[in-house]
Amino acid sequence: MKQRKIRVEEALEYHSSGRKGKIEVIPTKPCNTQFDLSLAYSPGVAEPCRAIAENEEMVYEYTAKGNLVAVISNGTAVLGLGNIGASAGKPVMEGKGVLFKKFADIDVFDIEIKTQDPEEFINTVANLEPTFGGINLEDIKAPECFYIEQELQRRMNIPVMHDDQHGTAIISSAGLLNACEIQGKKLEEIKVVVSGAGASAIACSNLYIKLGVRRENIFMFDSKGLVHNGRKLEADEPKTAFANGDKDIPLTEAMKFADMFLGLSKGGLLSKEMVASMPPKPILFALANPDPEIPYYEAASVRNDIICATGRSDNPNQVNNVLGFPYIFRGALDVRAKAVNDEMKLAAVYAIAKLTKESVPDSVLRAYGGEAIRFGREYIIPKPFDSRVLTAVAPAVAKAAIDSGVARITTLDLQAYKQQLEGRQAKKRQLLSNIAIGLQSRNNKKRIVLTEGEEPKIIRAAEIIADDGIASPILIGRTEIVQRIAAEQNINLENIRIIDTLKSPDIERYATFLANERARRGMTIQQAQRLLTRRIYYGTLMVAMGDADGMISGLNMRYDETVRPALQIIGIDKRYSRLAGIHIIITKQGDTLFFADTTVSVHPTAEDLADIAMMTADVAERFDILPRVAMLSFSDFGSSDEGNAKAVRKAYQIVKQKRPHLIIDGEMQADTAFDESKVSEQFPFSAIKGNANVLIFPDLNSANIAYKMLLSIGGAEYIGPIMMGMNRPVHVLERTADVAEIVSMAVICADEAHKTELVPVG
């Protein structure tokens, strides 16, 4: 996907429009009343002060230190701009803070220090230790950066990392592992030519050695040529450790034996001829920014056996430090590590490399143009917007910190920790992951049939459903087409059943059942057979006859096209009189709300609303959430008899009679459902004390409008629609559903199937 060229005016406006800069500080605790103020400051703040004075480790419990990183620079090596000063480097440091927050939910203060004296810089940073959980050094020129980092690591008892060195090293190392695997090369045998001898080049070379590359096989070039023993080199120069041989050789000659080229120097350094001269199946990382040593597509045009990476987002295989530093610090902070050591860096390398080989989620595909992405020459490193990097890298780093003895927290439940990380990314993931873990622990996997089995998204989702132990997926589709799509997208079908309706031995049995069920509606056996060529009918019959435990459909069909066969064949749960649909809304604040009916009931009666309320409460309980049901209207507790207010009031009475122990009240306005002070002052009798979590709307219009507005302007997330009221689990996908949403629906469907089994219908 070609990236649009950035204009100077656009970049300046981006940084200056509205609130200046790119970051702000917001409170995490309420400060709305006098009492809140007394807790936040005097006198309440004295209590955590006393606790920390008694035990300094309690600073992690009572302050933001454990989630706070300082991004610190003196502006001596900013991007490719050089020594432009601390103030001019501040936009970069703010940008780094944005990335920390965006990708790993880490808070950042950027600090620009106006000094080029290493000792003064070190003293300033070291004295900040009480404030921060970690230090990210940024844009400090070599060779001072090596000394500064080493000294701060020695003096400070929190993680310190110079990202310009180690970030590139970690990401490129992961790429090198995968590139060697694809090209059939062994790390201990490859010859590596490095163009550049600065901080990044030194760090990359050192980490490559730890992976298995031999030091004698690394040939490092600086602006004067090959670093070798025949040159006059200062003993304390880091590049001296990479002096190779006794005489100079030109880069053109070195390229002839370079299995791998690492460029961290300047654009346009390599020619097509130099790339053409490399040995078979070469690896070329041209990482100079913004212009690589050779453009990606020029290198690719010379060699069809090459693996090429650059630092550019508009090329495949972007080596981007954002794949490293947020997640390394996340893992380090969460176990209160005292340092970032080699073991933690290597753990990050292997985790990133491993993730690249997994199936790429739909959300990532959309972000990068929608084309298929799979492990190979043009995909050796995960994409920066792949949210799975957090749950892959941070736990690996945290575990390595514990195992290597630098963590203050010495035990970690990795599964629980991954759940916690998912919660930082998206509250709905956390909600669903709790259910998914329960499903994974069950031996009797429920059979979930996916009727649109020839859809690539459905096939990818089925692979995840099977691999994650959520359920046993069944795809309905032509076997040869499903297999072809799976092969094209590198999908494993090993634990997925495929049913071709045209070849199914069950057609006669299903047709007989359907004809008998619909005989008094005029259906013949021949008509039933014809209907069963439609996959939605076949899937529905599978569920009805006990050959599947639940069904998911609707990706390529209207809502009613999925629902009609289910109503005809499976029928409505005897406890209720109708179907309804709900959306689970997870607000920006992390609250979980159940909205109903958002899909079916256009003009519900009082009896309908009562059923909808009870069904929705049942769904909330399946999610282990105690339902507090608010029957919504434009009026509060009889203040009006206009419109459908009376119907809502009657619905409340019906539910109270049928479910006396259910926490429910109404009719009430939406703010009454959430405003504790309003309820306590005006309606102290209400069972809903301003903390409703199940919202029953008076009609489809209001419910649909409300949830879509919350999604559009309220920053909420959602799960759904969830079908309620069927005799067996049947769920309808939205046409825009991606792979993650299909998997989420499978989690809900499988969980419902288990709980339906445990609690018999009727």
* Mean pLDDT metric: 87
User: Main beta sheet: strand number and arrangement?
Assistant: 6 strands, mixed
Strand content: 5-15%
Structural category is alpha/beta
Number of domains: 4
Helix content: 40-55%
Distance between the termini: 55 Å
Global outline: globular
- In total, the number of strands is 21
Name the CATH superfamily classification of the largest domain.
NAD(P)-binding Rossmann-like Domain
Residue ranges: pLDDT <50 for 5 or more in a row?
Answer: 758-762
Return the CATH class of the largest domain. Answer: Alpha Beta
CATH topology (fold) name of the largest domain:
Rossmann fold
Instruction: Return Rg in Å.
Output: 31 Å
**Gross CATH architecture of the largest domain:** 3-Layer(aba) Sandwich
Strand order of the largest sheet: 7-6-5-8-9-10
Please work out how many helical segments DSSP would assign: 30
